[in-house]
Amino acid sequence: MVNTTLVTHFLLLGFAEDPEMQTLCAVLFLLMYLVALMSNLLVFTVLTLDPQLQTPMYFFLKNLSLLDVSLVSVPVPKFILNSLIHKNSISIPGCAFQLLLMTCFSGSETFVLTAMSYDRYVAICCPLHYEAIMSGQACVLMAGLSWALGGLLGTLYTAGIFPGPFCGSCVIPEFFCNIPSLLKISCSDTFLAVYSSLGIAVCFTLLCCVCIVFSYVHILSAVLRIPSRKSQSKAFSTCLPHLIVFTIFMLSAVMVYLRPPADSPPVIDRLPSVIYTVLPPMLNPVIYTLRNGDIKLGLRRLLPALPAQWVTFL
Questions:
Q1: What angle do CA 231, 237, 240 make, to 5 degrees?
Q2: Per-residue b/e over 262-276, b at no fewer than 16 CB within 10 Å?
Q3: Contact between 298 and 53 (Cβ < 8 Å)
Q4: Which of 221, 225, 233, 295 would give a disulfide with 289, using CB separation of 3.0 to 4.6 Å?
Q5: DSSP element (H, E) containing 106
Q6: 27/90 Cα distance (integer angstroms)
């Protein structure tokens, strides 16, 4: 007979069962969370207040920083709290809200990264028309569409999964609620909305990847035609960070969402979830901005009391 015990709550697997190790994990995640939070908020503040950094590239960086803060703030504080009180449960409404926000922000980040690749394509391949193409109105429209499409996909996922009941195991083998694990324990017979939204998401993701590859093929071709080595190096330096961040984000997302869920995977199999949720928000400020001369000048202008050695170190 099929087990039809209804699930009233979920258990999120952490990275340790020993209470002392759970506390250690909470401290480590708290440190990573604070680093991601403070660095992205600092970048967002500088890009917002400095009038000399109001270009399309920095406008998208500002959106990316805000998305990183939002994305890392959904699962990590809950995991830290659960680890400190040694309790891994999450309510069904809490799981639904977590799934909604995670899919919204991750989808929006994918679209923003695609817009950033288009910005670099126009800047390098069509420099004479850059200001006309990447106008303020166009940038706001692209950013708004990125947030709206991410929100639409998140709403479709959540609305498709959570109206139905859950039965069987209540264990989610991640430290946050994700779609594959919830689909495995759902006993609803109506998956049309879920699989439709999954198909739409896959199509959008493939389209974003095609757009980014198309952009960088043309960027590489244009850069190699530049006679000056110094100019080539400068052009590559503005594009390489984007490719690194996009690759890390997409590979970790594929490992999290497309890996077949197991009832109790080893700890090593749960590391992609950490890479997906924590690593990009920590690395993005360093890769994109804190090694950027314009951002350093913006920091000096915003924080005149900050020693120059600190800014140079950042």
A1: 135
A2: eeeeeeeebebbbbb
A3: yes
A4: 295
A5: helix 92-125
A6: 20
Place 219 in a pLDDT band, splitting at 50, 70 and 90.
Answer: confident
| % of the chain beyond a pLDDT of 70 | 79
Is 154 in contact with 111 (CB distance < 8 Å)?
Answer: no
Query: Which residue range forms the structural domain that includes residue 308?
Result: 9-313
Lowest mean pLDDT among 57-71, 143-157, 297-311: 297-311
In the three-class reduction of DSSP (H, G, I as helix; E, B as strand; rest coil), residue 267 is classed as: helix
Angle, in degrees to the nearest 10, between helices 229-257 and 192-224? 160
How far is the C-alpha of 261 from the C-alpha of 61, rounded, in Å? 34
Is residue 203 situated within a structural domain? yes
The closest of 310, 311, 307 to 295, measured between CA atoms, is: 311
What distance lies between CA 9 and its chain's CA centroid? 26
For the chain, the residue count is 314
The three-class DSSP label of residue 188 is coil
Closest alpha carbon to 176 in 80, 295, 56? 80
The reply to whether 4 falls in a domain is no
In the chain the first and final C-alpha atoms are separated, in Å, by 61
| Residue 3 covered by a domain | no
As given in the structure block, the two tokens for residue 152 are 């639409």
User: What pLDDT does residue 190 have?
Assistant: 54
* Higher pLDDT pick, 302 / 51: 51
User: Minimum mean pLDDT among 29-33, 112-116, 205-209, 291-295: which range?
Assistant: 291-295
Residue given tokens 């440190």 in the structure block: 31
Question: Would residue 35 count as lying in a domain?
Answer: yes
Question: How confident is the model over 254-265, as pLDDT tens digits?
Answer: 777 766 655 555
DSSP E strand boundaries for the chain: 9-12, 89-91, 171-172
Between CA 70 and CA 189 the distance in angstroms is: 33
Please tell me the distance from the alpha carbon of residue 154 to that of residue 267, in angstroms, as a whole number: 27
Number of separate domains in the chain: 1
CATH at residue 217: 1.20.1070.10
